Amino acid sequence: MDLLPSWLERSLQDADRRQLPALIPLLETLSRSTALLRAADWNLEATDQAGRTSEHVG
Amino acid sequence: MSVELRTVADLGRRLKSKEITAEAATEGCLTRITERNRSLNAYITVLVDESLEQARELDQEIASGHYRGPLHGVPISLKDIIDLRHAPTTAASRVREGHIARRDATIVGRLRAAGAIFIGKTNLHEFALGTTNEDSAYGPVLHPFDDTRSPGGSSGGSAASVLAGMAYATIGTDTGGSIRIPSAACGLVGLKPTLGEIPLDGIVPLSESFDHAGPLCLSVDDAAILYGVLRGIPDPVVPTPRDVSGLRFGIPRPYFFDLMDPQVLTRFDESCERLKSAGAVLEDVVIAHTKEIAAIYVHIALPEAASYHAPTLESQPHDYTENVRLRLEMGRYILAEDYVRAQRGRQLLTREVREALGGRDGLLLPSMPVPATRLGAPMVSIGGSEEPVRNITLRLTQLFNITGHPAISLPCGKTDEGLPVGLQIVGTRNRTPELLEVAAAVEGVLGRAC
Q: Residue B4: its pLDDT value, please?
């Protein structure tokens, strides 16, 4: 399940609560950057084969 | 501008032979500051009495036969993010109003021991978080060649101080490109050493994973002299240029050359042809994970910066300039799990740059994809699209902050409008002296700033 949309929603609500409307477009841009980072092929997760750790980190 | 610029090495020789006094050199800089600083806004603090007193003492030392080395009596400026005792370190921010440094930063102590004279503290993009020097509590710095343009940033005031002859060299910092970007924009030599090589205590931090300190100056020899002193060598020697015909370079074209001003590309290609004519071998190389560079950078730099600024973002938010405040606030929303992902990506990129170097003498690419940008313009037209100035100016430099490889920017010509273009050479980690030898060889082919 992709939790990024809920992170963005909470962040935008928080920026609104803090009366920082100018932060909203920056957070939207950040979320796209975060999505790219999370999609990168070097990321590991708990179901991965243990040997995968040596493939990408040198 | 019609100031005759002289290098640190040249001034040092003339001081040693007593052709000129440190006091006269200092007075010359102070005169140019009087003439130009009001319009350029390069300096935040000018140390008139202090620098002249330093100069007189250092002249007495030379007269009595005590010569400290090539920086003895040379007036330099310091980016106002670096502590100089008894002077404010403003970081170009009202947040630090009233601050006075109690002691020199370690690198300032080394410069002082080497006999450097501190002319003043230069303007910067607030807290070094920007590439144009426009967001500053003290107002923007103007480019000495064109007052509608930025000198680059965040070490913009530093670069302008040297280009306008208001200092013989300067010390800046570089977290994503803040030495190399203004060096490229102003036609200077700017060195970012290997990560961790130069001590950073006494320097206001931005991102401890990426912060570096280094010189901006008029020649590779000057960069080597200043680098040596910053390393703690009071009497450093200039590098012996390598033989160009034996040099091998890699050019990482994919991603780095995708968005580039045509004139920047032309100057770079011309430089490459000159190097090949001199016998250098140039080969294309590929760095695989370039698509993630900007994301890795943001997810490390911003939370690190935000952690430092969190208390003052709460207690005095309105003392920040608006743009800098917003970027710092953005860093507070980045999750720890994404910071960790970015650090893993950083390890991978470090290996990929090492592999791209693969026994070569350096990587070659421009320092900035565009010439000096227009003041007041958050976007720039490039490659048929509009791109944020911040993203474009960082595009060719930030990778080497991520990986920590040493990198130097040299001037490699000008656009038709007379704006400088910078060539970047990236070296092997922990071999900055070798990078300087290679850069000296390249400078010998391309020519000096002055």
A: 72
**pLDDT the model gives residue A54:** 42
Q: Is B178 a catalytic residue?
A: yes
In this prediction the ipTM stands at 0.92
Taking CA–CA distances from B292, the nearest residue in chain A reads A37
Residue B275 maps to a domain? yes
- Please report residues of A whose CB lies closer than 8 A to that of B341: 37-38, 40, 43
Q: Is A20 touching B (CB cutoff 8 A)?
A: yes
Q: Which two tokens stand for residue B122?
A: 């230069």
- pLDDT value, residue A1: 66
Cis omega before residue B154 (within 30°)? yes
Residues of chain B below pLDDT 70: 1-3, 449-450
The answer to whether A34 faces chain B, any CB pair under 8 Å, is: yes
Q: Is residue B6 part of a domain?
A: no
Number of A–B residue contacts, CB under 8 Å: 62
User: Is B150 among the residues known to form the active site?
Assistant: no
CATH number assigned to the domain comprising residue B267: 3.90.1300.10
Count of the separate structural domains present in chain B: 1
Q: How far apart, in whole angstroms, are the C-alpha atoms of residue B106 and residue B112?
A: 10
Q: What is the pTM of this model?
A: 0.96
Known catalytic residue at B154: yes
Q: Is B288 contained in some domain?
A: yes
- Compute the distance between CA of residue B205 and CA of residue B434 in angstroms, rounded to an integer: 28
DSSP result, B110-153: HHHHTT-EEEEEE--SGGG--SSS-S-TT-PPPBTTBTTB---S
- Residue B255 has φ and ψ, to the nearest 5°, of 75, -55
Percentage, residues of chain A above pLDDT 90: 66
Mean pLDDT, rounded, of chain B: 96
Tell me if B349 sits within 8 A of B401, measured CB to CB. no
Which structural domain range is residue B437 located in?
A: 11-450
* Residue contact A26–B341, C-beta within 8 A: no
Summarize pLDDT for B147-189 with one digit per residue, the tens.
Answer: 999 999 999 999 999 999 999 999 999 999 999 999 999 999 9
For A1-56, the pLDDT digits (tens) are 678 999 999 999 999 999 999 999 999 999 999 999 999 999 888 887 664 444 44
DSSP for B247-315 reads -EEEEE-TTTTTS--HHHHHHHHHHHHHHHHTT-EEEEE--TTGGGHHHHHHHHHHHHHHHHHHHHHHH
